[in-house]
Design goal:
Length: 114
């Protein structure tokens, strides 16, 4: 699978790490959605979203993350989100999305039980 301009893809063991290269907004939502859909199609369903380069998320991004979470949950998997900055973490708290599987870093995400 190739890396798109909005998001990079890496493998860490059996996990797929998706790393957006900037804020997630309506401008790059479709490209990130397409990358996620391709991962699902290839049965790469143990996905970690590394948000270390994400400065901000708009409502389109939040809808996308909820969609990704629900699709993986329906398959018995989890979307794990790491590296949220203070702004994004506050957005998650304010919108009550902090219940999604949010971790400080990749090590914490990998250690967490399914």
């Amino acid at each position: 699978m190739k890396s798109s301009s909005a998001i990079s893809i890496a493998r860490v063991g059996s996990r797929t790490v998706l790393t957006p290269k900037s804020s997630i907004t309506y401008e790059n939502r479709e490209e990130i959605q397409a990358t996620f859909d391709e991962c699902i199609k290839q049965q790469r369903s143990d996905i970690i979203l590394d948000c270390k380069a994400v400065g901000y998320m708009d409502s389109e991004a939040l809808e996308l993350l909820v969609h990704m979470h629900e699709e993986l949950r329906d398959q018995g998997n989890r979307l794990k989100i790491i590296g949220l900055n203070e702004v994004c973490r506050d957005i998650f708290v304010a919108t009550r999305l902090i219940h999604l599987h949010v971790y400080q870093d990749i090590h914490e995400a990998i250690k967490s039980e399914r």
